[in-house]
Amino acid sequence: MSTLNVKKSAGPLLEVNGLSKHFSVGKGQTLKAVNDLSLTVQAGETLGVVGESGCGKSTAGRTILRLYEPTAGETKFEGTNIYKLKGSKLKAMRREMAMIFQDPYASLNPRFSVADIIAEPLDIHGLAGSSKERKKKVESLLEMVGLRAEHANRFPHEFSGGQRQRIGIARALAVNPKFIVCDEAISALDVSIQAQVVNLLQELQDSLGLTYLFIAHDLSMVKHISDRVAVMYLGHLVELADSEDLYADPRHPYTQALLSAIPSVETGTEQPKERIVLTGDLPSPINPPSGCPFRTRCPLATEKCAAQMPEFREVSKGHWAACHYA
Amino acid sequence: MENMLSVSDLHVSFRARGGEVQAVRGVSFEVKPGEAVAIVGESGSGKSVTAQSIMRLLASPPSYVKQGSIEFMGRDLLRLSDKEMESVRGKDIGMIFQDPMTSLNPTMTIGRQITEGLIKHQGLSRSAAKARAVELLSLVGIPNPEARYSQYPHSFSGGMRQRAMIAIALSCNPALLIADEPTTALDVTIQAQILNLMKDLQKRLGTSIILITHDLGVVSEVCDRVIVMYAGQVVETGTKEEIFRSPQHPYTRGLIRSMPHLDQPKHEKLIPIPGSPPDMLQPPAGCAFCSRCEHAMEVCLNNDPELLKVGESGQQAKCWLHHPLAKEVQQA
């Protein structure tokens, strides 16, 4: 833990500045998936990213890893802009970052044995050494994620969803990364299995000092795992705060509606909460509304919101929101 | 008639390459008129198979009902001919499916998909059916229903398609609505809209609802009574308050404990249920939860417990811990 604290004070591990990612969808139209995203991730922290489907959270995660080339902006990893890297330097950077995917059924090659799946990044980066060493590394990775060494020779179809997700985690850990993007890493799992995988992710963070960008739509789980939470809507970051703070005192009307929409298990002790039910659907990111992206569904919207894009500003210490009235 | 629907000792299996998958193993429950009942369980627990058996939607082969009966308004649905069943489906029992993206016909307008049932079951004329369909679309909260009536599913968003599904399911005023994971594919803000709509319709039209879900939060929003399923069996039933305040089956308890709560202190560890559900090709002889249960006893290994009454109310749990003989041990 002590090494962790030293790292934490050394400045952000990851710094995203004005990142945009637009996709061309034909007929001269562009889909603006991510717009002017800026955030920092400290070493050893978990930053949660929440939002509804289509809000750009997965695109943001993938662009930050440079799985997509950005339309504008930069991502600095330990001070280096990763979009400027080429060749061997780019390859070396890829070792520092990894990803855990949503669907444990689609993200593992069914024709590869578990050993080959986990060792693929080792082979690519030439970290495996001899075949004996490779085997040993695979076995220790399997044990690290709570599987057994003899699982190495089996194939993905022999495993349950939770076990497959563990294999995906072992693969992500193979190159010893510092930063991992978990894109809906537990959404496809059953409730009782979700808790197993979340606990594993937290244990690994503690023992290896990992930094997570945890993308999910399950707000209770995000609160549980994250130090800070970013809320996205229609490609824009609308609020960013310490997770306790965000859930206790949401400032953006979208965050307020999102939090009030979580169905809660009534234990009878809590007061029934007041629910803000949003009307209408998410506007299209091809043709977003003028001004504030949320104004078409916002209960507080005024003319100012249609005319002027609200600035993303610090409304209280460490608590940022993009709303004229926050 | 006290019960509108009573399922008793239902066994449904599938023939598979490796043998017989026993998806549902002796499920019994009742639904009263106007009541909203939730069936909760993880994937593979048999909850959807139970629902689809009520609607007789499972293809046979590979599926077959081994034993049991499904009595609906005095008739055993399992004994009806296919023709008779057609008049029950859509008319007396409506169903909402999980995936609004694939359960609508992409080649038919939304309007035609709603009027189909109205014309067939209620003998309405085309124009009367259209008027009713437009009314239904506005009932489920679709803006501009006249224009939407003649559009195809691809111009509807996910939430709107699910509303259209609900409109189809409600078109003939069914006495029972079966909703199989109706909000799983939707975002939370849209989910809140759909749940509000279902609650509202239940109140206004007096429809009984069977809600199938894995999300305990959704259950507490809509339902009065909860049925918890595990490995093809009912392991606990009770009112929503009983199940959430004092779950009596170790599985239900584990399920509730493994979910994070919003008011939980930060970085408190979740308590997961270890292991994974049993293989339904060879279900265990004793209690199906035994291998994952922290309270497992010798008796659990080879003897399947019955649903035992817990406390004074109607709560029941399928667990040896609630057997009168186990009480002394528990207290010790």
TrEMBL record, chain A:
The keyword Nucleotide-binding applies. The keyword Nucleotide-binding applies. PROSITE patterns: ABC_TRANSPORTER_1, ABC_TRANSPORTER_2. One of its GO terms (molecular function) is ATP binding. Keywords: ATP-binding, Nucleotide-binding, Transport. InterPro entries: AAA+_ATPase (IPR003593), ABC_transp_ATP-bind (IPR050319), ABC_transporter-like_ATP-bd (IPR003439), ABC_transporter-like_CS (IPR017871), Oligopep_ABC_C (IPR013563), P-loop_NTPase (IPR027417). This is Peptide ABC transporter ATP-binding protein. It comes from Cohnella kolymensis.
Automatic annotation (TrEMBL), chain B:
One of its GO terms (molecular function) is ATP binding. It is a peripheral membrane protein. Its main location: membrane. The keyword Coiled coil does not apply. Residues 5-256 form the ABC transporter domain. The keyword Transmembrane helix does not apply. Keywords: ATP-binding, Cell membrane, Membrane, Nucleotide-binding, Transport. Belongs to the ABC transporter superfamily. This is Peptide ABC transporter ATP-binding protein. It comes from Cohnella kolymensis. The lineage of its organism: Bacteria, Bacillati, Bacillota, Bacilli, Bacillales.
